[in-house]
């Protein structure tokens, strides 16, 4: 079953809304479907997260297998179906984002199950898809006007540059990506170049984007760009406690800011 929706927000912002736990939980409440996250407590879903859905007295559990800027996929872990595959694919269409949601499932009951599919399953799935698209649209369109904080993923020789905060006390010692607020009159690439100069004393060329946006508690959106060093300077900790090049295996061991943890799978993919 396939449903589509056009959303007035950039791809990375729609990707974040799609990953937001609230989309799964409250988006479906109106249909009598109760959704509950079973694994991590982060606000954005990450691969490996499991969700339990209660529908008409039955429980169905799914696991997220992909959560990236181009969409979200999950598969059945347990429940009264023999197979379930849910894929949401996102594509940028000018300033908007096209969302295509497909659900494929196999009923375990043979011909009898197929009758049930037509009578109940299809109507329910269409309702669920419409509710999800409404929930994603509401969040993404509300977030689209937020101020942006750029983060920069600089990679060299299979290692990512991470920096350790020295302030405020609540975050001192935690790791983040170089970056900061986009200032008035500046675009995101310019902010990446300026922040890397100020924080690391290096020249960086922005090369693209990574992962979905991440909503911050301060009402802003964290948006990660990729970049490469173009000059001979070595990155130095100007305002930070330390800078470090980390490989894919070392990545999860650092004490990252909570917001950055939901991007680790995208950063790891960049290193491999
Ligand atoms: N630079 C950066 N900021 C991040 C990351 N993750 C994350 O939540 N943030 C947050 C921390 C801050 O609230 C905000 C970044 O703002 P900023 O770098 O201008 O730093 P700040 O608020 O401490 O302000 P300032 O005094 O340095 O100007 O975004 C990240 O990976 N890199």
Automatic annotation (TrEMBL):
Its EC number is 3.6.1.55. One of its GO terms (molecular function) is 8-oxo-7,8-dihydrodeoxyguanosine triphosphate pyrophosphatase activity. CDD domains: NUDIX_MutT_NudA_like. Pfam families: NUDIX. Keywords: DNA damage, DNA repair, DNA replication, Hydrolase, Magnesium, Metal-binding, Mutator protein. It comes from the Bacteria. The keyword DNA repair applies. Its cofactor is Mg(2+). The keyword Plastid does not apply. GO terms for biological process: DNA repair; DNA replication. Belongs to the Nudix hydrolase family. This is 8-oxo-dGTP diphosphatase. The lineage of its organism: Bacteria, Bacillati, Actinomycetota, Actinomycetes, Pseudonocardiales.
């Amino acid at each position: 079953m396939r449903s589509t929706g056009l959303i007035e927000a950039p791809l990375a912002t729609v990707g974040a809304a799609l990953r937001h736990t609230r989309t799964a939980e409250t988006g479906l409440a109106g249909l009598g479907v109760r959704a509950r996250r079973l694994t991590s407590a982060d606000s954005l879903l990450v691969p490996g997260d499991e969700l339990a859905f209660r529908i008409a007295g039955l429980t169905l559990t799914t696991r997220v297998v992909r959560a990236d800027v181009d969409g979200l996929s999950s598969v059945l872990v347990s429940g009264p179906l023999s197979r379930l595959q849910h894929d949401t694919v996102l594509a940028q269409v000018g300033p908007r984002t096209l969302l295509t949601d497909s659900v494929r499932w196999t009923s375990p009951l043979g011909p009898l199950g197929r009758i049930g599919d037509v009578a109940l399953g299809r109507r329910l799935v269409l309702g669920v898809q419409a509710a999800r698209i409404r929930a994603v649209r509401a969040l993404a369109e509300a977030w689209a006007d937020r101020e942006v904080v750029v983060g920069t993923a600089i990679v060299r020789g299979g290692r990512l540059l991470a920096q350790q905060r020295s302030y405020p006390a609540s975050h001192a010692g935690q790791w983040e990506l170089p970056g900061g607020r986009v200032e008035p009159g500046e675009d995101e690439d310019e902010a990446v170049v300026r922040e890397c100069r100020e924080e690391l004393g290096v020249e960086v060329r922005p090369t693209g984007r990574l992962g979905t946006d991440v909503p911050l508690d301060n009402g802003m959106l964290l948006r990660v760009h990729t970049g490469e060093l173009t000059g001979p300077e070595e990155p130095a900790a100007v305002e930070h406690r330390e800078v470090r090049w980390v490989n894919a295996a070392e990545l999860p061991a650092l004490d990252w800011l909570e917001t950055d943890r939901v991007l680790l799978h995208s950063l790891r993919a960049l290193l491999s």
